[in-house]
Fold this sequence. Notes:
The protein has four helices and five strands. It is of the alpha/beta class. Strands 2-1-3-4-5 form a five-stranded parallel beta sheet, sandwiched between helices. The mean pLDDT is 93. It has helices at residues 23-32, 46-60, 76-86, 102-113; strands spanning 35-40, 65-71, 93-96, 117-121, 136-138. α4 (102-113) links the parallel β3 and β4. α3 runs parallel beside α4.
Amino acid sequence: MSITGLGPHGERAVPANQIVVTEQEAAEARRRRFSVAVVLHTTTSDWSKQQLAGIVTTLGRYSAVVIEVVDCAFDWRTQVDALERLSKSHVDAVISIPIGNAAVADAHRAISHAGIKLILMDNAPTGMLPSSDYATVVS
């Protein structure tokens, strides 16, 4: 499989089949039993349901637990409120699909600045930078 194009900051994409989790990494993840929150634009579409099922199944293989799923109902204010609340929680990671750009950037950034890993789906809000503001963008 060939992927063309670059991310918004010149990142090169990597096909999923090239991502390898070693047995040692898997064992360490299982030992740590990470907690994850998922913040979606909606949970009612077939796409969202399939994404959530894949996230829960994949994380479950490594003993990570999805402790909360937030349905933002396509409302960026709901997303901002949820992210601000989660930034003060003890969750290990947040997976989020940003609703809008600049309006949700600071709330997403607050997750990373709180020491919580931020995984973005499909896009990164305007002005956010890889490594400092988020761990990765997946699609």
